[in-house]
User: Fold this.
Amino acid sequence: MMGWLQRLGSTSLSVFERLGRGNLFLLRILAALPSLVLRPGLVIAQLYSVGVLSMTLIVISGLNVGMVLGLQGYNTLVDFGSEESLGQLVALSLVRELGPVVAALLFAGRAGSALTAEIGLMKATEQLSGMEMMAVDPLKRVVAPRFIAGIISMPLLAAMFSAVGVLGGFFVGVGLLGVDSGAFWSQMQSKVDLYDDILNGVIKSIVFGCVAAWIAVFEGYDAVPNTEGVSRATTRTVVHTAFAVLGLDFILTALMFGDE
Amino acid sequence: MPAIINLLFSIHFVHGHGCGDLQAVRQGALKVSKNNDEPIVKIRSLRFAHGTRVIFDGVDIDIPRGKITAIMGPSGTGKTTLLKLIGGQLQPNAGSVVVDGEDVNKVSRDALFRLRKRMSLLFQTGALFTDLTVFENVAFPLREHTRLPESILRDLVLMKLQAVGLRGARDLLPAELSGGMARRVALARAIALDPMMIMYDEPFTGQDPITVGVIMQLIRMLNDTLGLTSIIVSHDVHELTMICDHMYMISGGKVMGHGTPDDMAHSESGWVRQFMSGLPDGPVPFHYPAPDYADDLLAGA
Assistant:
């Protein structure tokens, strides 16, 4: 019993210590952000590797999710004779929930894990130490550009996911199942609100982007500098980001749509 | 020697063009001549432990200016840790590390970074940036700390690469270099800002005899030509006695002896003699501590 309590205490302390270290790390990143104003090239390079290179995955996934939504939504709505509402169903599902959440999960798998592995390997091969010894702050040169690129990329990727998803739903609903094209778009136009739906979705994706980028760069920077350490850190990035995104999604949804 | 001429030209060239950024970075190196007798690194009562394992226990070390000083000792004795303590990357538990008059553990982060512009650490792995070419690796500290026009920066980088014999490898990526070439590129990068001091972490480990010879020659030549101070951490006795001016031997958290290579070769210390001659047994025992051999064998009978 004592051993179990001891392990519980030790694990709790370790979790809180790491959480504290992560928060201090975030503060140091935020303090480093102003230095990027003078060096936009660093952020642009990272926007390419974090954002542009994630586009293929996001577009293909968004298209498939939209097509499945169109198919499943049609099968349900047709029973009630309201298949014209398919555009509304697809758009609201994507803009409010699936766009930000699925894009964030995919982002963690594609870009987050790559960020962690890259920073972790730079640490393992002493590139970060080398930078420090050259009087270059790795937080400003390596971490901050990747963090800000993640925050900028995430809402754009989520918007892309939703837009392509709507097209996928349109293709299946209108193209294959015969839903009226005018009804599909007009229902969507009248029922999707710019502020309540789209803006809240964008806010969600920005929050998810912050969390995903923070976890990815922290795990890389905090990784044990060897092969196993980097491997574990990469896994932790994907798992922790998934938990954080899903947990935050519930909280944000409750705050945004709870009183409807 | 063409390399020496090029290095001298490099210094003259930049100063002659009044490039303020690089001159400011070099101010520390110029200070070398001002107080030549004062050691460039003064370590006093240094105590450092990893958890419960004590690495240094009251170590005093003076690194003289303008010389090549070797820090020797068995593997795992904390030689690399010592370099990180000098560079301010690790904090000691007690004692002081003063580099060029500044206590690296008491100065602000900005002051520490200013100090680091005047010293370089050549890592055992080279620590080259794997996504940058050889040229960009050497240009990295210049791009970060100066705003030199691209044409001057290019000339400077090529001069540094010429000094280490790798001007022709400028477009290669680190993955395309041999271990020895990677260390030479790292050396070119280390001298990019013309530091006052270079620390070498195991520069000869895993290198073939030709590469060892090249690196030895480069260390000596750069030290003398640029008026640097060099600290070499290694356990390669033969190579170090050939190029260093002063030696420190550390083991078990203490300084076991120091002096010129000649002093060390004729030391009366049994430990120093064992290390210098590479004897398998002596004050550092061959056997890991164990119960009496006969008792141990009979215990199983």
